[in-house]
Specification:
By secondary structure, the protein is mostly helical. The radius of gyration is 41 Å and the shape is globular. The termini are far apart.
Length: 1246
């Protein structure tokens, strides 16, 4: 072997040929002898002799090349592939030879046993140091991508038809993939260029086909490489942009039927990344670090934004539709799934989440708290090992905003049930916080204690919070599962209640939290009833005046506190009463039923405070009805301005009195059991409430401040609102009729009931919860929402607004309020309860009460509701002009568009709805602009899901043209009227701008398709026939869309549009169209370069259409726009001459307006000229003269009008003959002219 280099050339050639024959014959037993072969080939390459090859002669280098060529085109024995790949590392190879070798080795992958692939990949990677890095990486990734796909297919169809293909066991495949990834990472550590090449390759692939570039294998590979810091930023940026792009593309596709038909298969990167998490369970520890970092990076990059100066927009309860929100949710899913799969990394994830909750306190952290909550729920016992991290977080509770504290405590609540030490450390922190100087810290303490009281039934059985400090873990476990006695429990709870009592002497905010929380504590922990009720009784006694004839019954002055010249609310009295009312109602309904078996002492004690409360509330009700506003120092003459101390005090009093009235209304209605006297009391209380409410509205009307215009939040609970509405509108029981007639006689009361329902639904929509008991219980809220909807729907459909309005004095009619309420409810249900839409629609359909949940057809039920609103809308549209209510029509259209989202676009009902919408637009000449806007927007949003709206846009454009007339006044436009909605009042700017807005959306789709086309054109690896079929389908789609759009523009650019937004938008839209036409032409230039294809006839027709129907008309339109502006300028100039000083400002504004509105013109001309420039290129490339369809464009910078020139010259000649004797005068005149000209220009620049 050492002597091989000394051998003569012909001997080397013979030896080499012998080796090739042995390899071809498949009789190579091991790789040892190949070391000699590599030496022989290296020696051959450096040999200067001419060697005989076949009939001719070749030099050594050529001979070696021929041998390698023969070797790579012959059959290899799978056993010796690794040895051969190793051998080629030692041979000097040219780029071409290396490519040959690499491709051959990659082709051998499929013939090898799966276990042999990792070592072969390693050899290939080492070989790639010589070059062909891209080919190696592409080959490896596509091989494993194919294997993954095949595996998926087999899982989907277990009984595979193709039985010859041996199925690979899943775990074996994953282990092999993991090893290959490790090999690639280790080689990238040595050769950074390979890492750069990987990212570069995937970026270019992703442009062409994201499904092939970012498959589970390549994503796992990228995440493993990302752990090396040099490439980390690059990789994460690439992955994040890919994720948002994929989400945007999906959103884009879902919004358009036209695109869905062209792209039936949609690539979803979120599923791919979650699959990587699932695969990483097979020992891919090298991927987990990357996954965790990617998860946090996504959550931080796309976290909910905090609006400037406002409260953070928390949309965690809503359905996030935006790509950024989807990316943030994907980050959370990655972390949660990784947490479940990989134990070693759990504490790390938990620590990072907790750190972010603490450090990002200023920005919204709801997404991190949600993640923490899911983590705790998935494994509370595992968290015991990390409990020290949680207790560290508790130490910082008092520095966090109250929302964050509540979220955090709710999230870790399951952990408190299993870990004593965590619970104790929390209690210590909360007890310190109660005495803190910071108000937020005290509020946090109250929130924490209330949470403990609510969940304390399982929290252990020790008499005091401190005595469990030294208990071991075994005892903790025993304590959780042991039977705890309620006495020890109660002792613990009473200790906490003692701490909370101290808070009743603190600020209003702290007390408010307590009053809002007590009801929930009672409901979950009934044994605390007597303690809580006693606490509330002692608190209300401070403000209650027991003398039966004293008015008013409560000391309001005790509720406020003056500090310097400022006045604050100290005791939220209405909230206190509200809390008492709810607790008492719950106590009476629940505890008394259960107390039959208990001893008498407790019962007596219970009856004591119950009787006390009942007498007190009875007395307060009686006296509140008797009280006049003057008794509270509030009447029409009182000052309610917020700038003075007296005004602030009166505002506080008014809100408290109104709140007390509302609380008493609910109390008396509930205990009244439909007695007439009680309902008269309710009406009396409402009269008091209403007087104050009217005064406040009147004062707010005079004093136009934003603060005053907010209506105070109602104290009625959501459950009561639904009960009240059902009683008022739907209760037909004979026995209730007389008493309900009392309430039904007051229209004001009915309107109030509906408006409170509206307010509650609005609160639910904005925050995901409402005030009052069960306000945070989504299930109860949903049930109440269903009840309220039933009533409002019945009230609206059975009593039309027209009937009601005849007797109406002021304010909105009840029917209109019902309609507004329904609109809000339909929105809220789609946002918050999307999963429960079938049950919601089921609840509305009274006819079909007993259907199984599985049988509910959402489309049918939604179509039924839609038909009711369609009838109402048709009635509105066909009503006389005096009866037409624009507000109601607008709301009806919005309701229809909200409900139409529930229809399945493939269903018959959807098509019927679309046909109906088109018919309404065609037959109704709506002159109200907002209604017309709503109706057309509805038409577009529905039409786009059925097919492309270009045909519709053409008809609308023709109608606009017919309505507004032509830019050439001599031309009479034929009056084709397709849509009555387009009329003189609505055509411009309303319909015109809507049409242009829709045209822009179509242009965006076309632009997106052309980008896809370009990437498909540069893609050579797929099956060429399949790729060309798809390309042809896309090209056809693009050209047809653009062709129809050109006819839309053909109408619009000939329309005499008024100066302003329409002209401006149209000019910009035209520029965009020419830019898109140019990019289409560029695509064809590229296609002509890469293949010998001729351009399709369709494109020729499109170019012809643009030359005949668009470009010439664009130039006339530009002239028309300039004429409009020059007329407005000359008009201003005339004015200026009449009134010089006053009009200077007006002139400059008109000048600025003209400049602004003519700005798009140069851009449009440039776009047209660019289009023509590339057409010339394409004509040369394709040998087809496309410019024959283009007329020579006008030179806009220098136009000479012959007739004007002649008259000017004649005038000049006559002047010259007159002025000949006065030469010096004329020269001075010329000088002054010269001096003035620049001044005029300067003025124009302004």
């Amino acid at each position: 072997m050492l002597e091989a280099r000394q051998l003569p050339g012909h001997a080397l050639a013979e030896l080499a040929s012998l080796f090739v024959d042995v390899i071809k014959g498949g009789s190579l037993s091991n790789g040892k002898s190949l070391e000699l072969f590599s030496t022989v080939l290296t020696a051959l390459a450096s040999s200067k002799e001419n060697l005989a090859y076949g009939k001719g002669e070749l030099n050594g280098e050529e001979f070696k090349k021929q041998l390698i060529n023969t070797l790579c085109s012959s059959k290899w024995d799978p056993r010796c592939v690794i040895h051969l790949a190793n051998m080629f590392r030692d041979i000097p190879l040219s780029g071409e030879e290396l490519q040959f070798v690499v491709e051959k080795v990659l082709r051998m992958f499929s013939k090898l046993d799966l276990q042999e692939i990792p070592p072969l990949v390693y050899q290939l990677l080492l070989l790639s140091a010589k070059g062909s890095k891209k080919t190696v990486l592409e080959g490896i990734i596509s091989f494993f991508n194919q294997l993954d796909k095949r595996q998926k297919e087999e899982q989907r169809v277990p009984e595979s038809v193709d039985l010859e293909v041996a199925t690979t066991p899943l775990d074996q495949l994953r282990h092999v993939e993991g090893t290959v990834i490790l090999h690639i990472v280790s080689v990238i550590n040595l050769d950074q260029d390979l890492g750069e090449e990987l990212i570069k390759h995937l970026k270019t692939e992703q442009q062409k086909d994201p499904g092939r570039a970012l498959c589970p294998f390549s994503v796992a590979l990228l995440l493993s490489v990302a752990v090396k810091h040099r490439l980390q930023e690059q990789i994460f940026d690439f992955l994040k942009t890919s994720i948002t792009r994929s989400c945007k593309d999906l959103q884009f596709l879902q919004a358009s039927k036209f695109l869905q038909d062209l792209f039936p298969q949609q690539y979803d990167i979120t599923a791919v990344i979650l699959e990587v998490v699932k695969n990483s369970a097979f020992g891919w520890d090298h991927v987990t670090q990357g996954l965790v970092e990617l998860g946090f990076s996504l959550m931080e990059s796309y976290e909910p934004k905090k609006p400037f100066g406002g409260k953070a927009a928390d949309n965690s309860y809503g359905l996030s539709k935006m790509p950024a929100q989807q990316a943030c949710r994907l980050g959370a899913s990655i972390l949660l799934e990784t947490f479940k799969v990989h134990e070693p990394i759990r504490s790390d994830i938990l620590e990072q989440v907790l750190n972010r909750v603490l450090t990002k306190a200023a920005s919204p952290v709801s997404h991190f708290i949600d993640l923490l909550s899911n983590i705790v729920v998935s494994a509370p016992l595992v968290l015991q090992t990390s409990s020290s991290k949680v207790t560290e977080t508790f130490d910082n509770l008092s520095f966090l905003p109250i929302d964050t504290v509540q979220g955090l405590l709710r999230a870790v609540q399951p952990l408190l049930k299993v870990s004593m030490s965590v619970r104790d450390s929390l209690i210590l922190v909360l007890q310190k916080a109660i005495f803190s100087r910071q108000l937020d810290a005290r509020k946090a303490a109250v929130a924490g204690f209330l949470l403990l009281l609510r969940n304390f039934k399982v929290l252990g059985s020790l008499s005091s919070s401190q005595c469990s400090q030294a208990i071991g873990a075994t005892q903790v476990q025993a304590d959780v599962h042991a039977c705890y006695n309620s006495a020890a429990n109660e002792a613990f709870c009473l200790e906490i209640l003692g701490s909370l009592r101290r808070c009743l002497s603190q600020q209003a905010d702290v007390r408010l939290m307590l009053y809002e929380g007590f009801y929930d504590v009672l409901r979950r922990n009934s044994q605390l009833a007597s303690s809580i009720m006693e606490t509330l009784l002692s608190q209300i006694k401070q403000y209650y005046l027991p003398q039966p004839d004293l008015l008013p019954p409560l000391k309001l002055e005790g509720c406020i506190m003056a500090q310097g010249d400022q006045i604050f609310l100290q005791e939220p009295l209405a909230h206190l009463l509200c809390c008492i009312q709810h607790c008492l109602a719950w106590y009476k309904s629940t505890v008394r039923l259960c107390q039959g078996a208990e001893d008498d002492e407790e019962e007596e004690e219970g009856v004591g405070f119950e009787q006390n409360f009942e007498e007190m509330l009875e007395s307060v009700t009686r006296r509140m009805i008797k009280s006049e506003l003057e008794d509270f120092e509030l009447d029409k003459s009182a000052d309610f301005s917020l700038s003075s101390g007296v005004g602030v005090k009166n505002n506080i009093y008014a809100i408290q009195v109104m709140g007390i009235c509302e609380v008493l209304i609910e109390y008396n209605f509930n205990i009244g059991n439909f007695s007439k006297n009680k309902f008269e009391d309710v009406l009396g209380l409402f009269t008091c409430y209403n007087k104050l409410s009217e005064i406040l509205k009147e004062k707010a009307g005079k004093n136009k401040s934003a603060l005053n215009n907010k209506t105070a939040r109602s104290f009625l609970s959501m459950g009561f609102v639904s009960t009240l509405l059902t009683a008022l509108f739907r209760d037909n029981a004979q026995s209730h009729e007389e008493s309900l007639a009392v309430l039904r006689s007051s229209t004001e009361f009915l309107r109030y009931a509906v408006s409170v329902a509206l307010q509650k639904v609005q609160q639910l929509e904005e925050t995901g919860q409402t005030d009052g008991p069960d306000g945070q219980n989504p299930e109860k809220m949903f049930q109440n929402l269903c009840k309220i909807t039933q009533v409002l729907l019945w009230r609206y459909t059975s009593i039309p607004t027209v009937v009601e309005e005849s007797g109406k004095k002021k304010g909105k009619s009840i029917s209109l309020l019902c309609l507004e309420g329904l609109l809000r409810i339909f929105n809220t249900v789609q946002q918050l309860y999307s999963a429960k839409i079938p049950q919601f629609l089921q609840a509305l359909d009274i006819t079909d009460g007993d259907a199984e949940e599985a049988d509910i057809n959402v489309t049918e039920k939604a179509a039924f509701q839609i038909r009711q609103f369609q009838r109402s809308l048709v009635n509105q549209l066909s009503s006389a002009e005096d009866d037409f209510n624009a507000k109601e029509t607008q709301s009806l259209i919005t309701v229809l568009s909200t409900l139409s989202k529930l229809l399945d676009p493939a269903s018959q009902q959807f098509l019927q709805f679309l046909t109906w919408t088109v018919k309404v637009c065609k037959e109704n000449a709506l002159e109200d602009i907002s209604c017309c806007k709503g109706l057309l927007s509805l038409l577009f949003s529905v039409h786009v899901l059925y097919k492309s709206p270009v045909g519709l846009l053409r008809e609308l454009a023709q109608d606009i043209h017919a309505c507004l007339g032509d830019i050439d006044q001599d031309i009479e436009v034929e009056g084709r009227c397709h849509f009555a909605v387009v009329n003189a009042k609505t055509a411009a700017p309303t319909v015109c701008l809507l049409v242009l807005g829709q045209v822009d959306k179509v242009l965006e789709e076309v632009d997106w398709l052309i980008k896809k086309l370009t990437s498909l054109g540069s893609d050579t690896s797929e099956d060429p026939s399949q790729a060309s079929n798809q390309t042809q389908a896309l090209e056809k789609g693009v050209i047809l869309q653009l062709g129809t759009l050109l006819t839309v523009y053909h109408e619009l650019v000939q329309t005499a549009l008024p100066a302003g937004s329409c002209v401006d938008t149209l000019l910009r839209s035209l520029s965009k169209t020419y830019t898109i036409l140019t990019s289409l032409i560029k695509h064809y230039i590229q296609a002509c370069r890469s293949s010998t294809n001729t351009i399709p006839g369709r494109l020729e027709k499109l170019v012809k259409l643009s030359g005949s129907h668009l470009t010439p008309q664009c130039y006339s339109f530009i002239t028309y726009v300039q004429n409009i502006h020059s007329e407005s300028l000359s008009f201003v100039e005339e004015k200026k001459k009449k009134k010089k000083e006053d009009e200077a400002a007006a002139v400059s504004t008109v000048m600025a307006k003209v400049l602004r509105e003519t700005k798009p013109i140069p851009n449009l001309i440039f776009a047209i000229e660019q289009y023509e420039k590339f057409l010339i290129h394409l004509s040369k490339k394709s040998k087809v003269n496309l410019m024959q369809y283009m007329k020579l464009s006008t030179s806009r910078d220098f136009r000479i009008n012959a007739s004007v020139l002649d008259s000017a010259l004649q005038e000049r000649n006559s002047e010259d003959t007159e002025n000949e004797p006065h030469n010096d005068q004329s020269s001075t005149a010329e000088q002054t002219d010269e001096n003035q000209e620049p001044k005029k220009k300067r003025q124009r620049k302004k």
